[in-house]
């Protein structure tokens, strides 16, 4: 990608729940992932900015939806990452309902970027997100991040396994290896995300 449209991403606002997001017009994509999967690091790498999404050592704390806006008005929505043992079940249940409703009802939502630790893919949280996307008729792009922790053959095997499971489950998802650390798959991710946004940002 000759110019990176995500580089212009700017923090716009934080919303306590999806109803408080900016007006439902234009195009947006949402980032989801279990706490500590590497979502903030992936966002920062994609946007080529070090402090855009705060990478946290105390996971599960942020429960806001963070909104970033691109030059053309396209939005990136950073969803809260649950799936951590310390989050009470009642809160997870509430989160599931909120996110399911957002995925179903948000007109401007073009797709979901699902970040998984490549060493631990397709946990319950991830499967639930993919089920929600399927039910909402939304495309999903999976970043198997921290791929720098895997050997080349382990990475290839993991990617093939995830793709196979997506086909088996009827999840409309593409997948790739990614690393915020060594930049594996960075251009590929930007192209995929721009594609989800509808080419307006490409
Ligand atoms: N080796 C490696 N570590 C990563 C990568 N991405 C994130 N991390 C580390 O994983 C931890 C969680 O990252 P963070 O981006 O805060 O995850 P989040 O909770 O999903 O937003 C941090 O210690 C990061 O430094 C990566 O691509 N490779
Ligand atoms: Mg984070």
Characterize the structure shown.
This protein has 202 residues and is of the alpha/beta class. The protein has one domain (5-197): P-loop containing nucleotide triphosphate hydrolases (Rossmann fold), CATH 3.40.50. Helices cover 34% and strands 21% of the residues. The chain has helices at residues 39-47, 89-105, 124-136, 152-169, 186-197, and strands at residues 10-15, 28-33, 65-69, 75-78, 109-117, 139-145, 173-177. Strands 1-3-4-2-5-6-7 form a 7-stranded mixed β-sheet, with helices on both faces. β3 and β4 (75-78) form a beta hairpin. The protein is globular and about 45 Å long. The N and C termini lie close together (8 Å). Bound molecules: guanosine-5'-diphosphate and magnesium ion (MG).
Quick rundown:
The protein is an alpha/beta fold and 202 residues long. It has one domain: 3-Layer(aba) Sandwich (Rossmann fold).
How are the elements arranged and paired?
Layout: E1 10-15, E2 28-33, H1 39-47, E3 65-69, E4 75-78, H2 89-105, E5 109-117, H3 124-136, E6 139-145, H4 152-169, E7 173-177, H5 186-197
Parallel strand pairs: 2-4, 2-5, 5-6, 6-7
Antiparallel strand pairs: 1-3, 3-4
Give structural attributes.
202 residues, alpha/beta, Rossmann fold, seven-stranded mixed beta sheet, 5 helices, 34% helix, binds guanosine-5'-diphosphate, binds magnesium ion
């Amino acid at each position: 990608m000759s110019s990176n449209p995500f580089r212009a991403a700017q923090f716009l606002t934080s919303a306590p729940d999806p109803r408080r997001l900016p007006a439902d017009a234009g195009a947006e994509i949402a980032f989801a992932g279990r706490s500590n999967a590497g979502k903030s690091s992936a966002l920062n790498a994609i946007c080529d900015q070090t402090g855009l999404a705060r990478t946290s050592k105390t996971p599960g704390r942020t429960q806001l939806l963070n909104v970033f806006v691109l030059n053309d008005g396209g939005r990136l929505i950073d969803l809260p990452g649950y799936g951590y043992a310390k989050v009470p079940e009642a809160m997870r249940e509430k989160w599931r309902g909120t996110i399911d409703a957002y995925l179903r009802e948000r007109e401007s939502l073009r797709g979901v970027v699902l970040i998984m630790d490549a060493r631990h893919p397709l946990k319950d949280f991830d499967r639930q997100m993919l089920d929600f996307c399927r039910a909402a008729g939304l495309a999903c792009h999976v970043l198997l991040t921290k791929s720098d922790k895997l050997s080349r053959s382990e990475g290839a095997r993991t990617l093939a396994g995830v793709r196979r499971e997506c086909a088996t489950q009827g999840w409309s998802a593409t997948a790739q290896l990614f690393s915020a650390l060594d930049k594996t798959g960075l251009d590929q991710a930007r192209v995929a995300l721009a594609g989800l946004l509808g080419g307006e940002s490409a």
